[in-house]
């Protein structure tokens, strides 16, 4: 994210560094491709500068005190990196500063609440908190939760149609992967909030705290109106499909009878498949797109269109491998295995080529061609 530090480009030890970090005319520092990057390629592998529990999970130790301990333990060079990171969020509110002052006093390191040393420490911790709030990344791993600050990753600017996605493994290492082919010289971007399917005004609110105006193609490009229409369409589809989401597992029940849940019919499954195409048109290729494939696959299973379910599960898995890498795509691998088992079971139970020319099968084949 943006400016305020040296131009050191490499935070990891990997030999493959297809990017450089350099100043942009309007956005501070940014990451740029120094060669053509293939879809799914790992652009950056980086260990964290600082790791600490997320604010919600800070139990005995308030998270800002955990941060203080982590920063104090850094080597001099890492400390310089940390304090060189960009800091653009607002000053802390007075009430919050009072809490921090109290917590610092309770460490027993200061003689009294108004000591100049405590004042100085409060200013230091306040800056640490603001640097954290500007640059921290929530862990994307399914098994781990927490926040981390990654030196190089922090230089990547935001886009609502990002071309890269960062994910963490259980050891908190960050992997940045290309969501689509990236051209030489193109800026490499991520989404700071991953709510890229929201309308423009709502996306703007999501980035308010960073104090910048997004100039991505969906917000400020010649096709911004087209992007907005697609996102309104997505909101409508999401709203319609929401009522079907729990039904495939329930197969009826009082909520279905009351009209609160719906068993997916062919129209719902076709809409779920069409939704995939809307994501593609809107340029949204992150983890939320994997879920659109998964949902469509489950609807097809519940309607007995098992080959279509396999096709869509395969797309879910292929997409997940691009976003998170093959090692972390275990859940879509399982989804695909389950869909294949179901298809085999049906084939054994019946000689009929069930659904071979069904509307859903053809729609799923269309989705495969469009992948
Ligand atoms: Zn934008």
From TrEMBL:
Domain SET: start-end pairs: 17-193
CDD domains: SET_SMYD
Taxonomy, superkingdom: Eukaryota
Annotated InterPro entries: SET_dom, SET_dom_sf, SET_domain_protein
Pfam family, one: SET
Name of the protein in its database record: SET domain-containing protein
């Amino acid at each position: 994210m943006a400016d305020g530090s040296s131009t050191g480009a490499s935070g990891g030890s990997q030999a493959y560094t297809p990017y450089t970090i350099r100043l942009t005319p309007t956005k501070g520092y940014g990451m740029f491709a120094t060669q053509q990057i293939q879809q799914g390629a790992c652009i950056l592998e980086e260990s964290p500068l600082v790791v600490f529990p997320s604010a919600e999970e800070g139990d005995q130790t308030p998270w800002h005190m955990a941060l203080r301990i982590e920063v104090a333990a850094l080597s001099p060079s890492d400390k310089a990196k940390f304090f060189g990171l960009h800091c653009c969020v607002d000053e802390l509110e007075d009430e919050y500063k009072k809490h921090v002052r109290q917590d610092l006093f309770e460490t027993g390191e200061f003689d009294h609440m108004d000591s100049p040393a405590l004042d100085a420490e409060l200013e230091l911790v306040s800056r640490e908190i603001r640097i954290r709030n500007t640059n921290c990344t929530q862990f994307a791993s399914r098994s781990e939760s927490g926040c981390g600050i990654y030196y190089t990753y922090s230089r990547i600017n935001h886009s609502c149609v990002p071309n890269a996605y960062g994910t963490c493994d259980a050891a908190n290492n960050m992997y940045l992967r290309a969501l689509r082919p990236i051209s030489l010289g193109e800026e490499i971007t991520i989404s700071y909030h991953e709510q890229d399917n929201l309308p423009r005004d709502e996306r703007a609110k999501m980035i308010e705290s960073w104090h910048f105006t997004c100039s991505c193609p969906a917000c400020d490009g010649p096709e911004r109106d087209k992007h907005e229409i697609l996102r309104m369409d997505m909101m409508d589809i999401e709203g319609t499909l929401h009522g079907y989401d729990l039904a495939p597992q329930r197969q009826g029940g009082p909520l279905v009878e009351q009209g609160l849940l719906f068993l997916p019919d062919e129209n719902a499954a076709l809409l779920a498949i069409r939704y995939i195409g809307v994501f593609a048109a809107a340029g949204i290729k992150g983890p939320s797109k994997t879920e659109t494939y998964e949902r469509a696959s489950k609807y097809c299973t519940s309607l007995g269109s098992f080959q279509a379910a396999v096709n869509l599960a395969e797309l879910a898995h292929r997409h997940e491998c691009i976003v998170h890498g093959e090692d972390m795509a275990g859940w879509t691998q399982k989804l695909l295995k389950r869909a294949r088992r179901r298809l085999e079971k049906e084939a054994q139970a019946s000689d009929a080529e069930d659904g071979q020319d069904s509307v859903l099968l053809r729609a799923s084949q269309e989705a495969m061609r469009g992948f």
